[in-house]
Amino acid sequence: MKKILLSASLLMMLFSCQNEEKLSADDSTPVASERKCESDEVLKRQLLENPGMAQRLQEIEDFTNEYISHGHHNRLVNGKIEIPVVVNVLYKTAAQNVSLAQIQSQIDVLNKDFNAQNTDYNSVPALFSGVKANVGITFVLDQVVRKSTTKTSWGTADAMKKTSKGGIAPTSPTTKLNLWVCTIGNGILGYAQFPGGASATDGVVIDYRYFGTTGTATAPFNLGRTATHEVGHWMNLRHIWGDTTCGNDLVADTPTHNTANYGIPAYPHYSTCAGTPVEMTMNYMDYTDDAGMYMFSLGQKARMEAIFAVGGARNSFAQP
């Protein structure tokens, strides 16, 4: 059983991974061949810039632990959470100006993955069948905002979220999930802001080549799972390996992973950590290819529910 505590070392953990890249024939920025999410790096930067944020994150963690320990995690606020989504598209080329069909394909994937309606949900091994979860959160496309840019890539310093930097400011970020679709660069597929950060930068950023299931979506990240992974972070989920060797993802029912998994690992894949458990490589919060991830756990569901509960960090999204 994992100890569900948020330590200073976890908060400040610097995680980096080597990423193999290849050049696309029609783009000057590299196409990723391995998943690379920058959410933990962005969190570390935000903690350095705002020392008071660590206390806020600890308060969120304390609330989450209390919520789970009192057994409230069998229901959501109002029975169901429906989240309006604003998609902000920043494009330099026509291809980067992703179509409405591509945007809707991403919304559709989020709805399937968060409601256990994905066809590969039934592929979860028997070992984990008792903890696989229907999170029960739905997403509705609310608005698409488009803006032409001369930038080749945006990086991870939130420039795409600021009009002063040529980006698009979030729309109603306390009641709507903002997604930015742009060229991030450096082989990064996406990143999210965890609960507790500033509303002016709140939301999820995804590279246009790993968004949705059609158009510019590029294999092996063309099944919309980058958004599922990043929205998981936005709902307070950590990487399943805890961003360090045999780390803690603050979830009791996920096995301890020694590090990130890539590609589509053969099952069973054993951890080198204490007890050598079979790793839950098919969890959305690992680093596997889109086709290799297809479940959340009940413990992860409980963490997500907690942030929408009364007193939770994202309770404003749960209001009628």
Written overview of the protein:
With 320 residues, the chain is α/β, with parallel strands linked by helices. Helices cover 21% and strands 13% of the residues. Strand 1 and strand 2 form a beta hairpin. Helix 3 packs across helix 6.
Can you give me a brief rundown of this structure?
With 320 residues, the protein is of the alpha/beta class.
List the main descriptive attributes of the protein structure presented here.
single chain; alpha/beta; five-stranded mixed sheet; two-stranded antiparallel ribbon; globular; disordered N terminus
Helical residues, percent: 10-25%
Strand content: 5-15%
Mean pLDDT: 90
> Low-confidence parts lasting 5 or more residues at pLDDT below 50?
3-26
Radius of gyration: 18 Å
- How are the strands of the largest sheet arranged? 4-3-5-7-6
What's the overall geometry?
globular
Distance between the termini: 37 Å
Listing every helix as H and every strand as E from the N terminus to the C terminus, the arrangement reads: HEEHHEHEEEEHH
